[in-house]
Amino acid sequence: MTPRIIVSYDDTDNDRDALALGRLLAVSGADLSLAYVRHQQADARDRESVEQKQAEELLAHGAEAIGAPDSPRHVVVHASTGEGLIELAEREQAHVVVFGSEYRTAAGSVVPGTSAQRLLNGGPTAVAIAPADLRSHASVRVAKIGIISDGDDAAEDTAQTLANALGANIGDPDAERVDLLVIGSRDGTPDGRMELSAVAEYAIETATSPVLAVARATPLLFTEPALSRA
Q: What is the C-alpha separation between 211 and 203, in angstroms, rounded?
């Protein structure tokens, strides 16, 4: 089953970076949808209708921007963006939630925002984070994918199938520049949940490429693996 991907989108520049990364990951028929979390429901019915329509138009604009006007779109009402996205991901059985970096992050750097951090700390899906200003690249080519597995085969399997889908090679992030970094959850994390080791957190802090952190023992199969593990 190809991954189901949700992009967290609010029409800011950083979330346009998330759109660019979501489009990159939506390969081999992966399902891509957009989500916007409203933090409260308006008391007046007419005002609620206006705010709901504005949210829907915002998402439609994002879908148009990446040439996918028919992509599913979700407006969620929740006090917490992170918790709202978790509930949506569980309801939609999504495999990945994509974020842009924190506001005012330097171009080319990766800084998870509060909502991304919520999913990185015990969330039920993989988390992808775009470096700031990724949106400015006319096209994003992934030729080399790095892996920090933390002993979890899910990261290696994800990276390999993604490399197959993108026509990329696997590289050593400690020895060469990579175009995308796949990170596994730390040892001891419950299967299907996301937790990062200190090494993985540092790798994200110093990354200059998109990052895809994978839930423990839950590989994302962008294509069928060429070989099964013995």
A: 9
The domain 4-214: what is its CATH number? Answer: 3.40.50.12370
pLDDT (tens digit, 9 = 90+) per residue, 160-187? 999 999 999 999 998 899 999 999 999 9
Does residue 184 contact residue 214 with C-beta atoms inside 8 Å? yes
The three-class DSSP label of residue 39 is coil
- The span from the first CA to the last CA of the chain, in angstroms, equals 21
- Report CA Rg, the chain: 17
Helix (H, G, I), strand (E, B) or coil at 192: coil
For 40, the 3-state DSSP assignment is coil
d(CA 27, CA 8): 18
Distance CA 22, CA 31 (A): 10
**Band of the pLDDT at 227, cuts 50, 70, 90?**
very low
**By the 8 A CB rule, do 89 and 6 touch?**
yes
CA distances from 100 to 25, 131, 160 (A): 14, 7, 24
Q: For 102, which DSSP code?
A: P
Token digits of residue 156: 């290696």
Do residues 75 and 55 make contact, with C-beta atoms less than 8 angstroms apart? Answer: yes
Q: Where are the domains of the chain?
A: 4-214
Q: How far apart are CA 109 and CA 208, in angstroms?
A: 5
